[in-house]
Amino acid sequence: MRYRLGVDVGGTFTDILLIDSDSGTSYRAKTPSTPHDQSVGVLTGIEKACAAAATSLAEVGQVLHGTTVATNAILEGKGAKVGLVTTAGFRQVLQIARSFVPGGLAGWIIWPKPEPLAALEHTVEAIERIGADGEVITPLDEDDIRAKLRRLKADGVQAIAVSLINSYVDGRHEARIAAIAAEELPGVPISVSSRVLPELREYERTITTVANGYVQPQVARYIENLTGKLDRKLYILRSDGGLSSATAAADNPVSMLLSGPAGGVSGAVWAATQAGYTDLLTFDMGGTSTDVALVQNGVPRVGRETRVGDLTVRSASVDVRTVGAGGGSIAHVPALTRALRVGPQSAGADPGPAAYGRGGTEPTVTDANVVLGNLPTELAGGEISLDREAARAAVQTVADAMGLPSVEAAAAGIVDIVNENMFGALRLVSVQQGYDPREFALVAFGGAGPLHANALGRLTGAWPVIIPPSPGVLCAYGDATTSLRDEAARTYIRRFSELTDDELRGIFTELAETAASTVEAEGVARSDQTVTYQVDIRYHGQGFEITVPASLDDFDDPASEGQGAGLKALGAAFDAEHERLFSFLLSNEHELVSIRASVSGPRPHVAVTPLSEGSADASAAIRTTTTVHVDGAAAEATVYDRAKLLAGNVVTGPAIVTEMDSTTLVLPGHAATVHPSGSLLIRPVEGV
User: What is the mean pLDDT of residues 54-65?
Assistant: First the structure.
């Protein structure tokens, strides 16, 4: 079977990318998302993509899917009723939580503390105790826990989460409780912390396990439903950018809370590498939100926490920051302040912006771009026609509320504010992390990203601004071009003086074997696997850790005396990262906290067909001219058909480049050069 199918479900659109693995030819489809049942939009898009390729689903070997099912269950509060089993004396672990309150000064006064995902009345205590060294202090009282599980069954719980104190050291009591739960509550999914997150810190381990149970029934139903309709091998994108089998995803859905954004980062890395850039800021603007991330040396920064709404769980994910700024973000003027605000509320896919003509009346970012002349009359390959008069009427309400002289002034204000919101997110992943954005290229994608990319380049100073081919479906491209991955972890708290290189190397090898076996079971031979290692280190007495990479090569050099070469390399890497983040070092001894091994399969080969060579003259791709409003004045912009651009063509702003899934705006004083890989590289024009 020669085709691979990438699927990305967003809040507004569902994107499909069908790739011919032999020729590299891709076929795109973009269709409105169906929030009531995401599989409907997915299947509709697949049918369109297969029709464009003149093929059928029977020729598709694999379906690789980035999904927001788990994310939406958290954000909308529509997960399962979870019963939690804890160790006696720890029943309030979720209520105590961590003493963190978002917001500025006195934020605690107005912050409504979110309800725990497992209610206190659905939390029971197991009579048991295992010490931090793995020794059984109090044996498990099986009769007692069986009676309590029966009570949870009577309460109608839909999932069980088991998180006992110190179970990361020894999970035997958790395993036994899970077995009893399977007997007492047949068919109810069970999440066990020693499998979901075998790491220290009982709150983080418990909330992660409960979150897994909270989304598990909904995710399992969705995957089962989609797998049944597709009758194809289905892989789900993990939050860390790797793929897992549908079965593994259904068992551990907490690992896919940022599945969608991770696909976009993977696609951006692939596209930018083709253009010769490996240090990137990625900027994914869709209909509902914008996701940004930082990539260094072709590797996305991966954090150990995943945050969705008010929920933070301990799960590896691409370090993506999200703001409620998208094409559907609604602009409004509060009566009290009369200050224009944009988002985070969104018109979504239904009814959508006023310009969509589906009943929406509130002004959105898309409506503002229509008023400014930045968008063509149709989107998504003609599937959506834009109603310019409806857009003007919607934006006029903002002009009236603020007393602005024209609807164009209101539209420009909306665009400026949403750009500043996205600029703030880009600063979070760059400046706040100690990186200068001017040293990175900016990769813009998503349906709305290329429309705002040039403006974000001006704000950040990140050049060139790269617009990949098919930017509106790049997340689906990332899904279709990523690799299988699994991870094994262990908490192992030791001061460096208590460790040896041989001891640590043995743990690395053991964890790598565990992860490699899982990947091998999915058909990836050991010879095709790549293993990477990470460790969490802190200064002894410090309350937090920093994750640094580890290389097994460092552990091959014999130590002449004292600390081995491997431990010295880890200590040096930790010191360098600590100083970069905080600008100081301590004299305290280093302490190991956790160890991880990640095993990945090879990225699939997708042939790239370079564009035909052309000159700087791009006139053959001109479609028409139009009037746009830029920097407070009207200007005549040339409209280009991206499909007709050749390598080496230069598009000088003001200009609009149109294609099926997105629209690129090139501002005055800037020019876009067409790279042979198909990407547009936007830079300022010298002397302008």
Answer: 83
